[in-house]
Design brief:
2 copies of one chain form a homodimer. In chain A, strand 13 and strand 14 form a beta hairpin. In chain A, helix 8 runs antiparallel to helix 10. Helix content of chain A is 42%, strand content 20%. The two termini of chain A are 35 Å apart. By secondary structure, chain A is α/β, with parallel strands linked by helices. The first copy, chain A, folds into 3 domains: 71 residues, Winged helix-like DNA-binding domain superfamily/Winged helix DNA-binding domain (Arc Repressor Mutant, subunit A, Orthogonal Bundle), CATH 1.10.10; 131 residues, Nucleotidyltransferase, domain 5 (2-Layer Sandwich), CATH 3.30.420.40; 162 residues, Nucleotidyltransferase, domain 5 (2-Layer Sandwich). Chain A has a 5-stranded mixed β-sheet with strand order 6-5-4-7-11, with helices on both faces. In chain A, strands 14-13-12-15-16 form a 5-stranded mixed β-sheet, sandwiched between helices. Chain A is globular. Chains A and B meet through strand 13, helix 10 and helix 12 of A and strand 13, helix 10 and helix 12 of B.
């Protein structure tokens, strides 16, 4: 049951809004559902569902498809499907070695996506905004949806204040105190909502919604790029901390005899398990970027000893840190994203050896380690979900379904 | 507002139960309140509050005291106070070096408490239960409350499955697979609810309810004994993880070149910041126990260089680990309990130096570090709150306030 109220003692418009929101959210999260399934999921009556679905059909947000007969008696219940292009959001990802943009329709359907590798170097904010503009034009030109972009979400490899998208620090980008929320809104010249979050935080949400962690309520997502980020889900809710900075696994002091980190400290976890640590161990130069990373992974795939040993050493340090995090968080799944997804087969052996040796038996017995199934797109898709948030909360407002009347909104 | 419903469309008995529960909980958490304050806090009408308070007075759970005149016009609102002895719970604490028991009345009033130091050594479960029995007889004999013990809560330095109080592992007690929940119920020969939890987890709750972290929603509590436990509160709710094992900060691998830990791994945080690490650094023997710990703290207090240096070194390692945990959790307060409360002045300098150098600036700016104000009693008081849980959830059931009639329950 989704906690939908039938409306006793409530203002009917509030109830209608929350019922429409729950239906749209269920379809967005779970894909097409029959009216009977919506009845079961929401606790609303069959006739209430019929009316609400009718409104959504009238507004062009959903269509009803004839159901397949499954040999059960009675009239088959038609399947209610979202129309992906009825609302399109813009998702952006700002990583140190790459930038990406996607136009994503309702239900999480990726309508278009563009990604470019970037040369390393502390890029100015202006330069990155300029490059993002090219990507945005490529994916979100006129005609992508039936109207303008409904909202935008941005995943960035940095420490973000959620409230206004202010980036305090992005050590590997060389950014400090960047008002990214405002800059992106200016770039898009939009009044639509713009939400900014840490790349690993939203990657965790995406993996839980459509990836490796579907159905899990206690999740640790570790996202390996040049920096190493984490997203933690506790009892089904993101661990944000007091101001949204939670999840920064990459800066746990793990090797006190180790190397300096971009954050200013010594021996942070990311100095042992980040992209540069892998490149250096494989005999390449730190700062080699995505092209060299792909070469290392290809060589490991081909059985080259040096690259396999480099991956194994990263796996060993991953296992040491994960043991500590599993002891702290008692998660049911650890999802490894970013570079760890393609490298997974080459690092999981040493990782599990350390995890087994250092985790308390009770939490160890309950946790599994899996590669991100959304791969390098986890954060980009997470940014899209960030953008869908305000739409799903109030489909009435964005779709023009005003007080009790159907408004056939068009572009 | 406490989210109390006035009852439209609800079964009236359910509503009455939840309203009585909310009033009793507000008084238990916050101390005496006037009827006007209860009206403001609950959103119930003045006449509803009058009726519900009347029921609680009739059952002997609360009394109403005449209000002081504060120079405001009108009739003063009497203050509603819980009667501490109207329900008494038993709180037990099982630490490696000490055992404690307390009889605690409504409102958290400690009616009687007994604590004994124990000689170190992996004590059998039977021996500890035998010693607990003496303590229980000392604090919870006939006459402590107006009836038998209403429920019991146990804080134990181990890894506990919350559901049934099964202790998977208590490395420093030498326990594995102990069905403590069942054993305590047998010891007490009671059908009353018995709840078991990790000592640091309940210590965190106690410090948030009545100690250093009142009002904070994102809290890290670190509890130093022979083992080092942690309790984490995220968005106002305890971080339990998938099975209640969450919060085990003591087994984060922090010094890979370090010492073996009781859990079997090498270099866990507690090998650097636990009681034995302090004793050894101060030139005493590991296993010296509480008596030696008190000597070390007394010597530090008197200005002895060796003991001050030992405390400073523990502070340094505390700061290193806390930097990682603050980066991960973005808490507003870190509360240091157990031995860290009396040692606080001697370790805070080196602790803050490491914390400042290793924490990302954004979460660092938002966190403060404070000693536990409940001191060594945090876990014992947390065990009491664990025991109060079922009573506060349904005062109707335990106080004999049956369906719509007042039952003057007596001992």
């Amino acid at each position: 049951m989704l906690g939908i109220r039938e409306g006793i003692g409530q203002r009917s418009e509030t109830v209608r809004r929350s019922n429409l929101s729950a239906i749209v959210r269920a379809l967005h999260d779970g894909g097409p559902l029959s009216r009977s399934e919506l009845v079961a999921l929401t606790g609303l009556t069959r006739s209430a569902i019929r009316g609400l679905v009718g409104e959504l059909v009238g507004a062009g947000l959903v269509i009803e498809e004839p159901a397949e007969r499954l040999g059960t008696p009675g009239r088959p219940s038609p399947r209610v499907c979202l129309v992906p292009r009825s609302a399109v959001v813009l998702a952006l990802e700002i990583s140190v070695d790459s930038l990406a943009a996607a136009a994503v329709g309702m239900g999480g359907e990726v309508l278009d996506v563009a990604r470019v590798d970037r040369a390393r170097g502390h890029s100015s904010v202006d330069q990155i905004l300029f490059e993002l503009r090219q990507l945005i034009d490529a994916v979100a030109g006129p005609g992508v949806g039936r109207g303008p972009i409904a909202s935008a979400g941005v995943a960035v490899e940095g420490i973000v204040r959620r409230e206004d998208g202010f980036v305090w620090m992005a050590p590997n980008l060389g950014w400090r105190n960047v008002p990214l929320g405002r800059l992106i809104a200016e770039l898009l010249a939009t009044d639509a909502p713009v939400s900014i979050a840490n790349d690993a935080d939203v990657g965790a949400l995406a993996e839980r919604q459509r990836g490796a962690a579907v159905g899990a309520d206690n999740v640790l997502f570790v996202y390996g790029e040049v920096g190493v980020g984490g997203g933690v889900i506790v009892d089904g809710r993101p661990l944000t901390g007091v101001a949204g900075y939670g999840g920064e696994v990459g800066h746990f002091p793990i090797n006190l005899a180790g190397r300096p980190c971009g954050c200013g400290a010594i021996g942070c976890w990311e100095t042992e398990v980040g992209e540069d640590a892998l490149l250096v161990r494989a005999g390449r130069s730190a700062g080699g970027g995505r092209a060299e990373l792909r070469e290392v992974l290809a060589a490991a795939e081909a059985g080259s000893a040096r690259e396999l040993a480099a991956c194994a050493e990263v796996g060993r340090w991953l296992g040491i840190g994960l043991a500590g995090f599993v002891n702290l968080l008692n998660p049911e799944i650890v999802v490894l994203g970013g570079l760890y997804a393609p490298a997974f087969p080459f690092l999981i052996g040493t990782l599990l050896a350390e995890l087994d040796g250092r985790t308390l038996p009770a939490p160890r017995a309950l946790v599994r380690v899996a590669p991100a199934t959304l791969g390098v797109s986890a954060s980009l898709l997470g940014a899209a979900e960030l953008a869908f948030g305000p739409l799903l909360d109030d489909p009435v407002a964005w779709a023009g379904l005003r007080e009790g009347q159907v408004n056939y909104a068009t572009a």
